[in-house]
Specification:
The structure is a single chain. By secondary structure, the chain is of the alpha/beta class. The protein has two domains: about 140 residues, P-loop containing nucleotide triphosphate hydrolases (Rossmann fold); about 55 residues, no CATH class. Helices cover about 45% and strands about 15% of the residues. The chain has nine helices and nine strands. A five-stranded parallel sheet has the order 3-6-2-7-8, with helices on both faces. A hairpin with a 2-residue loop joins strand 4 and strand 5.
């Protein structure tokens, strides 16, 4: 794919203050077909565990891109008193000192399919409202980027205009997870298996941002992505 943006390995400093617009060719849906029926184009940004999606999101936010982060929305839901009561009622072993013990809850989630469904149903019932509140805060932009790990798993790729994948090979994923999250290899594999294989996500995506090597190379990948999709 060709791009006007040249790989420099360094993010231009003046990007942060620029207003970006999505190119019309990449607006695929109308309001009635889009996630939560939002009126503006929506780009889905996904990846796998420890592929570096959070790093990409952080860089885009620094540049002024309108990002809605699904994980942050979920954290906001968990911070509510109603969530504490829900976990206390259904998974009391995940409560420590009147707070949710997230490492314990994570283990329960990945070890028990029924628990996983119950937790997901509780969270997703509240997710639309949190998404729309954040979208309203970003109302000055003419498009939105939704950073969502389960874009393909939940079929959300059909509800966004473009699907972007941050890709890292599975061996690198495992190594990063063990180091970053201080977990064993068994749990790392379970967490990866809970998502669609990263190679499959790569094949399903409209654009792939590779993150197998250095941060400088990642900046170059972002150069090409931005040049392909946006105008300044």
């Amino acid at each position: 794919m060709k791009s006007k943006w040249i790989f420099t390995g360094i993010r231009p400093r003046n990007w942060r203050k620029r207003v970006f617009k999505i190119k019309p060719d990449f607006i695929r849906l109308n309001e009635t077909n889009r996630l939560y029926k939002i009126s503006k184009p929506l780009i889905g940004l996904t990846g796998g565990v420890a592929t570096g999606k959070s790093t990409v999101t952080h860089k885009l936010i620094q540049m002024g891109f309108p990002i809605i982060n699904a994980d942050k929305l979920v954290h906001q839901i968990y911070a509510k008193e109603s969530s504490l009561e829900f976990i206390k009622d259904h998974f009391p072993s995940a409560i420590t000192g009147a707070k949710i013990n997230f490492p314990t809850l994570r283990k329960i989630f990945f070890d028990n399919t029924n628990a996983q469904k119950k937790i997901e149903n509780f969270i997703y019932a509240q997710l639309e409202n949190e998404f729309l509140k954040k979208a309203e805060e970003l109302n000055q932009h003419n498009f939105l980027i939704y950073d969502v790990p389960l874009l393909f798993e939940k079929g959300l790729n059909q509800l966004v205009d473009q699907s972007i994948c941050v890709y890292t090979d599975q061996n690198t994923q495992i190594a990063r997870m063990i180091k970053r999250d201080n977990i064993d290899e068994t749990l790392a594999h379970k967490m990866i298996k809970a998502q669609i294989d990263i190679e499959r996500k790569r094949d399903l995506s409209d654009w792939v941002i590779e993150n197998n090597t250095s941060l400088a190379d990642l900046d170059g990948q972002l150069d090409r992505f931005l040049g392909h999709y946006f105008t300044k």
